[in-house]
Amino acid sequence: MLGEDFGVKKIHTINRRMFTIGAAKFIVFAGIIARLFSLQITDNKKYSTLSDKNRIREWKLPPVRGEFLDYFDNVIAGNFKVYQLHIIPEDVEDFKYLMLRLKEILSLNNNEFEEIIKQKNNQKPWETLIVSKNLTWEQFSKINYYLYDLVGAKPVMSVSRNYPFNESYTHVLGYVGETSEKDILSNENVKDNHVPGLKVGKTGLEKSFEDQLLGTNGIQRYEVNAYGKRINQLDHIEGFKGETIKLTLDTEIQKQCGELLKDVAGSINVMDIYTGDIIAMQSSPSFDPNLFLFGINQDDWQLIRNNPLKPLVNKSLSGLYSPGSTFKPMVALSALENRIITKDFKVNCTGKIEMYGQTYHCWKDKGHGVVDLKEAMKQSCDTYFYEIARKLGVDRLRETSVKFGLGDKVLNETFNNEKKGLVPNTQWKKNTLGRGWLLGETLITGIGQGYIQTTPLQLCLMTAQLGNGGFKIYPKITVQKNEKTAEEIKLLISQKTNNIDNNLLQKGQDFFNSLNENQYGKLFSNSENIKLVREAMFASTNEIRGTSYSSRIEDPKYQFAGKTGTSQVKRITEKDRELNLNTADIAYNNRDHALFIAFGPYKNPRYALSVVIEHGGSGSSTAAPIAKELFKLIIDRHDLREQVQKPETLNT
Amino acid sequence: MQFTSLNTELTFFQKFRNFDYILLTCILLLGLISSLSMYSTDGGEILLHSKNHISKFIIFFSMMIFLSFFNIKIWHYFAYLFYIIILGFLLWASLYGIKASGSQRWINLYFINLQPSELMKVAIIICLAKYYHRVQLREVNTFQHIFIALIILILPIMLVITQPDLGTSILIALSGLVVMWLAGLNIKYFIYSFVALLITMPFAISFLKPYQKLRILTFLNPDRDPLGAGYQIIQSKIAVGSGGLTGKGFLQGTQSYLEFLPEKHTDFIFTLFAEEHGFLGSLGLLIIYIIIIYRIIKIGSISRSYFSKLFCFGYGSAIFFYVSVNMSMVLGLLPIVGSPLPIMSYGGSSMLATMIGFSIVMSAKINHKQLIA
Fold first, then answer.
1. In chain A, whose CA is at the least distance from the CA of B329?
2. Which of B116, B25, B7, B23 is closest to B71 using CA atoms?
3. How many CB atoms lie within 10 A of CB A225?
4. Looking at beta carbons, which residues of chain B come within 8 Å of A33?
5. Contacting residues for A640 by C-beta, under 8 A, at least 6 apart
6. What was the ipTM of the complex prediction?
């Protein structure tokens, strides 16, 4: 045995070295404690935030879109329940079997089937797979019936846009579709509330009122695990539904307009001549915007896109037409206002006039003989208007036309596709074309041909402002709160008429009011002139040999005054004149546009309308009869319309 | 027999009285804390991990008490055998071991899947303690003795590093080296080998597995790849940091409950604990470990035999290494190497090895007056 003492030095060494290690341990543990302190105490806030960021995920729910109502509170763009089929692949035991069963039950074709499989492979297994966006009630009940056999399939109800009147409001409302990158980038609101599958307005009012309609997201806050799977719901915040927007349109009239324009390309617009309410605005041909809701199929899209009658264009606002003879009331008014002519001014029409080495034809080869203003308007004598346009000059003509709303947007920025049209003058030609104005151009402008271009809605506004006695109105398509009633506006107008020699006080007050309120100002200097034009228009419809005499309504309740227009789309050559072809014999694209403007009832006017039929032949044969049919309905709906209470506020 | 005749054998009650109850209490406390933590990793239910952990703790703790009654001389007597058996197991693991997640560390003993490298962490200390027990201080620094000690150390390290298991081999190396140093190996050898290590480092790195290189890079900058290699350490720091002063509360650790923490049962158990119990809890846990280490060293210092003394000092230091490496790792102070936290981490072999170590320490306490020839 070795004694204790053999290792005294050894024991000494080990004890000394253990002490060294002990000191080292102390330092290391102190370091670890310092680290714990720095993480848990000093930086606690930072790491707590990171931890919450880890575990809390927000899910935005799609906002519920506001609705559109017509004037009678019918929903014209609403939300309807759709039946959808969702699957969370993770929860499905046998995905293949389930899909094959569903294929059978829903009778999916191979294409659709593969599309779904592709979709499934592109997403995480706990993300919802939408097998069908819009099931029919039969399919939905069938799935519910077989549900015991479809483990993992979830039939759900969701909300989608719906246009109950199908093609009636297509051009006014536009339609919604899946949000594109452009939509997100161009609209902050859309960006803030975007969720996958969100639909936003693509055209029309749906697009213009996007901000109001959109609403806000509901938010669901979930605790998620490291793989992003939802563990439990922490919070649910309801979103706000978008605003409901009420329009001035009347569905019955709008539908009727659609019927009247069936199979032709054209536009009808109806307006209240005092309030400026647009009562109908129809463009034809139309299409069913519901087709776009779940992605339009290629065949339907090609059919719409390639239709030569251009259903995608809102012709009321974007269609530009030479007004033809419907411009004549403007020419007559301008000549009267500028004292170029009096009502007794006469011209002898021989069917054509020679001027500046050119022949200008009247539509009637034989001529109208000696005509005064009323006769010339009534029979739409071109020679008469060549003559007064020549005397008037295009610059003064433009002044009057612009006052009545031509050459500018009627609804300002409400629609992004509204066109301004064009009312030319000498300055314009010089600036734009770099050439001087030719006198001959004044002549053809006098019958609404040449450079002048108008939209059907502009013609409607022009007519409305003639119909109300020549006062400016403010067209609108939405019902706003606290707006003036027709009676209030009438009162305002009559005050202006009575105080013809308005005193300074009145003037000052007018000026003051004009700063913050619609003025409904006079557009004429002598009300007699307006009266003459209106009488001439009345004669045109209601007296023998008037161009729209055959479309008259004798019952004073419905009696209206109008003016036809036939606008050439192609220069008529001498050869054409000799052939004197029937409309049906001319190639479609070369046929004249048929136009008609009218206001009524004549005794106490309230409504104005414009009808444009593209390549419809003559205004009197094609456009005016449409107005006749429509006018009865408009007047019959008048009382109902008056009964509608103007709401104080719209947002309920 | 030789050893019984020289010393008076203690009675059962004397032995029982000589138990270190402070150490025992700390071990039981750790067992309780670890069981509760395991219960929390199972999401507040008694599932696979908590069930296994609790049962293993009970079995191995009882085993530890039982083994404590053996005289320290017996451990001394069988020290080499123990080492050789474990070395044999390691060889067996290299040849026929069970492969799991890219390494071959386990052998199937039918009743348990054993990880011999864990046992080697204790065996190396016993073996070297016995080796140095007889060596005179002046002979420690002779070539022969350094060579033999290094062979004893390097053999298991080679076997473990090829499994591959960098973490365990580092801990074995540290345990072995600390024993050699305590035995009196000249400090200059440590300095020389440290310099040599620095020089060979670049070459050594080229031998590392790609994932090991990645871990070092990740340690240097965890944000390099926050969803890939840096994920563990970032999430671990978030969990610990969000615990704050008093923690999120028992079973309330969102980071672990929502599975943001990888390996929360094993190497990252401290993260879960720190998240749920905060700075105060972590400090408490650390203090328990410090008391354990202190008690082991205390026992060493009162032991009369050099073997007991060297083993206790060595094992106390080893526990310090396990704890500090594991904690530094989960707190982002060291690169991630696989190293369990003694008793706390899930894993039978680690628990078994730790308990064997404790039983030897306990035996040294009971027989602290015992001299070994």
1. A32
2. B7
3. 15
4. 283, 286
5. A72
6. 0.91
